Amino acid sequence: MPEIGGGLGMLRGGMGKEEQPSYEQDPWKHRSMSMRCGTCMFFVPKVSDVPRNVALGRCRRHAPTMSGYPVVFSHDWCGDHKLDENKT
Predict the structure, then answer these.
(1) Domain of 66?
(2) Burial class (CB in 10 A: 0-12, 13-18, 19+), 43
């Protein structure tokens, strides 16, 4: 009986080398620097007495879960970004 839909070859990476997406073809490449958590209106930075090398905070985009709001870095990003004009 013949295989339908390409068989295991499709499951093991059916894209050839010329078809694999690359970072140069990324349509969001130019937008990613301005769409970081640090510029989002839902990002709340963590206040600490200890100086840190990286900004850490919480994302308040959605309601908290049992473990609270998600912890994010200021250089992270997601699809729910909404620009805060006071942070740019």
Answers:
(1) 31-83
(2) buried
